[in-house]
Specification:
The complex is a heterodimer. Helix content of chain A is about 55%, strand content about 20%. Chain A is α+β, with helices and mostly antiparallel strands. In chain A, strands 1, 2, 3, 4, 5, 6 and 7 form a 7-stranded antiparallel β-sheet that branches. Chain A is elongated. By secondary structure, chain B is mainly α. Chain B is globular, with a radius of gyration of 23 Å. The chains are: A alpha+beta, B mainly alpha.
Chain lengths: ~675, ~575
């Protein structure tokens, strides 16, 4: 119930007024089930008023009318609550945007000539200068300079990121803050069409369009509404055979309880909430369609580096040369790496410390660091007790003028074949052994791929490594397939081939050369840190720039579809009990013997009908939290998932209203209302 | 209920399933053009009609060809019925039918309904029976099966437009399936004592010295296709209760077998065509399960007897034998009733009007559920597939994917068309019944007061729209209003239903066929069968609950209370 409490009282009041506003038939006509409910409410209200004027009994009709109105209102309320959650986020985004002004350069290459203009007057293709402390006025691409930018307005992450011209870190977003240095930005988005603007519109639900599955579901619900309209309308003729057709208010109650108001009322809230779940997860989808497609994905294309593996090679083993102790090698490797500030160097120190207990607090006095160069491919440390070196095996052996002992050469070969990188370690002129550097698979990835496989999703690792290396890492990570020595074209070809087989493909990417594949994929998750081209090509942007989140995006998509299906099943299954409540009540005047069908032993025909209508209205409110939170998704096979959800929402949908209607009937009696 | 009764039911159904298994495979071979033992005849016919059997048709072309064939059939039959007085083979000298009745009858036989507002032995010449009604029995059955084959093909492959050639399907079904089976079954019927003669009637002198005219005619072979093609139109007015149309209990058992065997076989044919026979078995399982439950309900209701009779001292062991034939017994009457209404046949071997209210409720519900259990030849299968798509759509979302069936995604277009098809039954059944119950000229056709009278009218439109053709009885149907509206109901039930279904087939055929994964839920297990059964009941049946409550249900509870009208 965190969903409602998180809203706060103010937001709830706002949702209440929005719900009333949404009762406008012109808005409601988009939702046929609730529209019919409203029309029926108006009809019964008029009848109640007429009865009151004519001095007839009107309280029953008024009671029905009230609860029919509430049914429609609860439906619009559900939608308003769902929108309200997005609105809070949109407001904070708007505040972050501020009122920026821009220094527009008159000539691209001259930073001294500029004129001040409000950001709203910027045109695409103009160049602006942004210096430390200023907001970037609109989306664009850095063409000159380098700056650190605080993107908290978009990502919520306050640690600044580097933006520079050229390469994959050139995209900047309007509304973010330059915190040091300066950049010249070529504007790529017109005012009102920036990333931030789109983001605000999205989280507010202003640009929400019905997704394909939603449209199909809408048609089903409309069809069912028509069927029950026929069933209820023809009842007038059928019942007249015995001379006692039921009153219009009763027929109205029967109709509204039979048509699928529960799912009809919650459908759009479910869609908005699904989008909102993604936003909370710091992923922005350009459309609901993309979220839905995520649930349908069959193939996940994941980059090896940074997604499946940690991305930097780390020490994984020491392989001593013949006659050398492992501890001796570890100590030498540690000393050779003392001055090495690269992640690889750090990892050697960490490994030597954790596995062999050797450590030093920085280079001792008198030590001379030998830095790594691309020419020598060797680095190290000169100490009084010896010269310690590490580097590429062939380079180090050559510089020392020694041959690699055959056992060590074999070990080095084995390391290379398994996808690792061997580094040789030497003291003075002696090769002591090798360090195995490995691209480490992130912990838990194998389990996640297993879970994906149970969901019926194949994972494909994409890497620039050669086949042998790729195969080794693929086996270790537990992916289903891999693309080795991958070029951007390879990715595109792979996606096209999978799609031709009718599969939906999702991928994450950030570079400009990822753009074609991102655009081709059914779900393209672009990184916020990526290039403008990548961000434009994808249909989702991850503000945290974590490609692993593709997996959760798929789960959110599935959850959205499951929630819709579950509540539809529940709504339809509810009808059984409602018949048992209302039918005996309607016909008991013509055939008192039909009282037998009143299996719930409801007190009177009036209370039975009223209880069914009240249940029908209240169940919408009761299910709002579930609609907003989504049905829990467990990554088991489809058969198990179906069994579980059919049991809960199908069988539960049959049983729940029997209990609910009986309870409401008892309360009505206690209150003396019926 | 007795063990012997249940043994009879089990034996007949076992024979049906045992025969349906090879027949299902055989029809698949016929559909694929792999059966060719009449190839010279087949090709001569193609050549005479200028048809290239290898040329595939899209769904629209297929539907148009089907409509053309059926329109032709209608015109010929209508003309024949109107003109039969002037045509040969009319030994009893019957005149032509009235325009209303001829319209109703022609529609009835073209749509595979075989609703009969006339009494065969007192209205139809031999020529009308043989060249008119019997021929239509073949053609309407072949039409249904051809349509079902086209729908099956839509699930078999991906990205195709071609659903087969209607004329080839139509001819092959007739030549290789319906004719051979009818000849064999017809000969057995002759052996069992059914007449097959062109003599009009035999005269006989009764014991009292009076004269009696005993109607005769070409009965046996017409009865064979009447059951095999789930047509149901009897040679005689009282249908299978007539000693010449239902000569023995064994003949009744064979008739039940003949009604069921092709619809059940087609479920398996579907499995063969889509390349996964388990899919067909799941559909067959649902059909069989419903038939068993329905039979048990009718059997229990009738064996339980009428409480008023029991109170008057009737032996409870007799049950309610009113309207049933002692030669066939209670069990076969119950199975026949469930079978003839479940399979859209419409032949009767017991008078439904005389059933207990619940015994009459069951056949009505079986028809209202859409004639899919197992339904008419062909129409049962494609009707079932509509429910399958709806079941897959509703529940499929619950596994978190766009629903798909056999690798075909079920999307807005399919749902829309499926709902259009599903709408036809309640609109026609409830709409026409409601109007007819307030229209004085229609109300006067009803025989009984109280809820039973409502059942009579409700059943008539249920039977017509469901293309079943059985009559509840007690309704004078040969009036201009009922002849016309029932005719329209029959047309709606057949063609307004099948056009959207074929559009679904066209749309699905064009979609790529996706491979199955663990993310797609299996549609061949008991879980799916249960789901499908539930969806049929809820989406197909719930809308009729109010009407049923006012008819048979009200009658039942009123009867229990000891009240009559």
């Amino acid at each position: 119930m965190q969903t409602t409490s998180a809203l706060g009282r103010h937001a709830l009041r706002r949702a209440g007024t929005d719900a009333l506003r949404k009762l406008n038939p012109r808005h409601l006509v988009r939702n046929p089930v609730i529209f019919v409910t409203e029309v029926i409410s108006i009809l019964v209200t008029l009848l109640a008023i007429r009865a009151a004027f004519l001095g007839d009994a009107w309280s029953f009709q008024a009671g029905i009318a009230l609860w029919l109105w509430l049914t429609a209102l609860f439906a619009t309320f559900a939608e308003a609550v769902a929108e309200g959650r997005g609105r809070a986020r949109a407001e904070s985004l708007r505040r972050g945007r501020g009122e920026a002004s821009a220094r527009v350069l008159l000539r691209e290459d001259d930073r001294s000539l500029w004129q001040n203009r409000p950001a709203t007057d910027l045109r695409v293709g103009e160049f602006v200068l942004v210096e430390a402390g200023e907001l970037i006025p609109s989306d664009g691409e850095v063409v000159q300079g380098i700056a650190s930018v605080n993107e908290a307005a978009i990502t919520g992450e306050s640690a600044p990121v580097i933006r520079e011209s050229g390469g994959d870190r050139s995209a900047v977003t309007g509304g973010t803050l330059v915190v040091s240095d300066w950049i010249v930005v070529r504007i790529t988005a017109a005012a009102g069409a920036t990333f931030l603007d789109r983001m605000i519109a999205l989280v507010e639900g202003a640009s929400r369009q019905k997704t394909p599955n939603e449209i199909a579901l809408d048609i089903l619900l409309t069809g069912m509404t028509i069927i029950f309209l026929i069933a209820v309308a023809t009842l007038v003729g059928l019942a007249s055979w015995n001379g006692r057709p039921p009153s219009v208010a009763v027929l109205a109650a029967l109709l509204v309880t039979l048509i699928p108001t529960t799912i009809g009322g919650l459908l759009s809230a479910i869609g908005i909430a699904g989008m909102d779940r993604l936003v909370r997860f710091n992923v922005l989808a350009t459309s609901g369609r993309a979220v839905e497609a995520a649930g349908d994905v069959d193939v996940l294309l994941l980059d090896k580096t940074g997604t499946i593996t940690l991305g930097n090679r780390q020490a994984a083993a020491f392989v001593p040369a013949p006659g050398v102790g492992e501890h001796e090698l570890a100590e030498a490797a540690m000393l050779a790496s003392l001055a090495d500030e690269t992640p690889e160097g750090r990892s050697i120190l960490a490994f030597a410390r954790d596995r062999h207990g050797v450590l030093a607090d920085g280079p001792p006095p008198g030590a001379v660091a030998v830095p790594f160069t691309a020419q020598t491919r060797i680095s190290g440390l000169d100490l009084p007790q010896g010269r310690y070196r590490k580097g590429a095996v062939d380079a180090l052996a050559r510089s020392l003028g020694v041959a690699v002992p055959p056992p060590l050469a074999q070990a080095v070969d084995r390391i290379a074949r398994a996808g690792g990188t061997p580094l040789a370690v030497a003291r003075d002129a002696t090769l002591l052994g090798a360090i195995e550097l490995k691209d480490i698979v992130k912990t838990g990835m194998r389990e996640r791929f297993d879970a994906l496989r149970r969901m019926g999703i194949r994972t494909v690792m994409v890497t620039g490594d050669n086949r042998l290396t790729a195969a080794a890492i693929a086996a270790e990570a537990g992916v289903d397939d891999f693309i080795a020595e991958a070029t951007p074209e390879d990715k595109l070809t792979y996606i096209r081939r999978a799609q031709a087989e009718g599969r939906l493909v999702a991928m994450a990417g950030d570079g400009t050369n990822d753009a074609p594949a991102l655009a081709q994929a059914d779900v393209g998750l672009a990184m916020q840190t990526g290039t403008q081209a990548a961000r434009e090509a994808g249909n989702m942007v991850d503000l945290d720039s974590d490609p692993t989140k593709l997996i959760e995006v798929v789960e959110i998509g599935k959850q959205l579809l499951i929630t819709r299906g579950a509540l539809t099943t529940f709504s339809i299954a509810n009808d059984v009990a409602k018949y048992f409540a209302i039918l005996p009540a309607i016909f008991v005047a013509s055939y008192p013997e039909l009282q037998v069908l009143n299996v719930m032993h409801l007190a009177s025909p009036e209370s039975a009908i009223l209880a069914a209508v009240i249940f029908n209205a209240l169940v919408i409110v009761a299910l709002v939290p579930l609609a907003l939170r989504g049905v829990r998704y467990v990554p088991v096979g489809a058969a198990a998932l179906l069994r579980r959800n059919l049991l809960i929402y199908g069988l539960g949908g049959v049983v729940a209203p029997f209990l609910g209607i009986k309870l409401i009937d008892l309360i009505l009696q206690l209150l003396g209302l019926a | 209920m007795t063990w012997i009764g249940w043994a009879q039911i089990a034996l007949v159904l076992a024979c049906v399933i045992a025969a349906a298994i090879p027949l299902g495979r055989y029809i698949d071979a016929v559909a694929a053009g792999r059966v060719a033992w009449l190839a010279p005849l087949e090709h001569a016919l193609y050549q005479a009609a200028g048809i290239d059997p290898a040329r595939g048709m899209g769904w629209k072309a297929y539907v148009l060809a089907m409509l053309a064939a059926n329109a032709g059939g209608f015109v010929l039959l209508y003309a024949l019925l109107r003109l039969q007085g002037a045509l040969p083979l009319n030994p009893q000298g019957f005149g032509g039918l009235s325009p209303w009745l001829a319209f109703n009858t022609a529609v009835s036989f073209v749509t595979n309904t075989n609703w009969q507002a006339y009494s065969g032995e007192a209205a139809m010449s031999h020529l009308s029976q043989m060249a008119g009604l019997t021929v239509q029995n073949f053609l309407s059955a072949a039409t249904g099966i051809a349509l079902a084959l086209a729908v099956c093909r839509a699930f078999a492959a991906g990205g195709v437009k071609n659903l087969g050639n209607f004329w080839a399907d139509f001819l092959r079904i007739t030549l290789y399936v319906l004719l051979p089976l009818s000849i064999v079954v017809g000969l057995v019927f002759v052996a069992m004592g059914m007449p097959q003669t062109l003599v009009g009637a035999a005269g006989a002198t009764t014991l009292e010295g009076g004269t009696q005219t005993i109607a005769l005619g070409p009965v046996a072979f017409q009865v064979a296709i009447k059951h095999l093609g789930t047509n149901g139109g009897g040679f005689f007015g009282v249908n299978a209760l007539h000693p010449f149309e239902g000569p023995s209990a064994l003949a009744t058992a064979l008739q039940i077998w003949a009604q069921q065997v092709i619809p059940f076989a087609l479920a398996l044919t579907f499995g063969h065509i889509v390349g996964d026979v388990r899919q067909g078995r799941a559909l067959l399982g649902v059909m069989l399960g419903y038939i068993l439950i329905a039979t048990a309900l009718v059997y229990a209701a009738e064996a339980g007897g009428n409480p008023l009779h029991l109170a008057a001292g009737v032996d409870p062991a007799q049950g309610n034998m009113e309207g049933k034939d002692l030669r066939f017994g209670m069990a076969l009457a119950a199975l026949f009733t469930a079978s003839t209404t479940g399979a859209s046949c419409g032949a009767v071997n017991a008078m439904l009007d005389s059933f207990t209210p619940l015994g009459g409720l069951v056949p009505m519900v079986l028809i209202q559920l859409g004639e899919v259990l197992p339904g008419g030849v062909g129409s049962g299968l494609y009707g079932m597939l509509v429910f399958v798509l709806l079941a897959v759509f509703v529940a499929g979302l619950m596994v978190g994917r766009t629903p798909e069936y056999l690798g075909k995604k079920v999307q807005a277009r399919e749902v829309k068309l499926a709902m259009l098809a599903v709408l036809v039954l309640p609109a026609s059944i409830l709409g026409f019944t409601a109007v007819s119950l307030v229209l004085p000229s229609a109300v006067s056709s009803i025989q009984d007061a109280g809820p039973h009278g409502l059942s009579e009218m409700l059943y008539a439109f249920t039977s017509a729209t469901g293309n079943n053709g059985s009559a509840f009885g007690g309704l004078t149907a040969d009036t201009p209003w009922l002849n016309t509206t029932l005719g329209i109901a029959m047309l709606l039930g057949r063609f307004a239903y099948v056009v959207p279904v074929m559009a679904i087939a066209g749309s699905l055929a064009a979609k790529p066929k996706l491979g199955a994964s663990t993310g797609t839920f299996p549609t061949h297990g008991p879980l799916f069968a249960g789901l499908l059964a539930g969806v049929i009941l809820i989406l197909g049946g719930l809308q009729f609950m109010p009407a049923l409550a006012l008819g048979p249900l009200a009658e039942h509870f009123v009867l229990l209370a000891g009240k009559t009208f």
